[in-house]
Specification:
CATH superfamily: 5'-nuclease
Helix content: 40-55%
Number of domains: 1
CATH topology: Rossmann fold
CATH class: Alpha Beta
CATH architecture: 3-Layer(aba) Sandwich
Structural class: alpha/beta
Strand order of the largest sheet: 3-2-1-4-5
Number of helices: 6
Largest sheet: 5 strands, parallel
Oligomer: single chain
Order of helices and strands: EHHEHHEHHEE
Number of strands: 5
Radius of gyration: 15 Å
Distance between the termini: 24 Å
């Protein structure tokens, strides 16, 4: 099994001070030998949020430090980098058409479609992702 963690999960895993770090770590430790994957959208979102003052509550990283944090994640957790699977755009279009609107609906629909098309499980703390169905989506409970 391969998991596609949402950006919020990658941040919670990487930032010890994050409110959901304990829950993210507990989930990660329960996955055993399952694979983890970054895609370009989760990689970019991870870097973007690490450098965002309000998200990091004043402890934002410089771009160089964010890249180093990503490299540490790669070294420690050994995630694969997943290229877009064939057929992704049609599934994304179908999911986004059902989603309506919202602040993150484009990204959420993309990641749900990516996981579905690639045969991965999308893992997130975001309960709103349930609008895309339950198949291939795992919503974590906050600590």
């Amino acid at each position: 099994m391969t998991f596609l963690p949402d950006i919020n999960l990658w941040i919670a895993l990487a930032v010890i001070e994050h409110d959901q770090h304990a829950a993210a770590t507990k989930w990660f430790e329960s996955t055993g030998d399952a694979g983890m994957a970054f895609c370009r959208v989760t990689q970019m979102g991870f870097l973007r949020l690490l450098t965002n003052r309000s998200v990091m509550k004043g402890d934002e990283l410089t771009p160089d430090a964010a890249w180093r944090r990503l490299e540490r994640i790669r070294a420690d957790l050994k995630p694969l980098f997943a290229a877009e699977p064939a057929g992704l755009e049609k599934v994304w279009q179908d999911l986004s058409a059902k989603a309506g609107s919202g602040s993150n609906f484009w990204t959420d629909a993309y990641l749900a479609a990516f996981a579905k098309t690639a045969g991965y499980t999308f893992v997130t703390f975001d309960r709103g992702v349930s609008r895309y169905g339950r198949t291939g989506i795992h919503i974590l409970r906050p600590a």
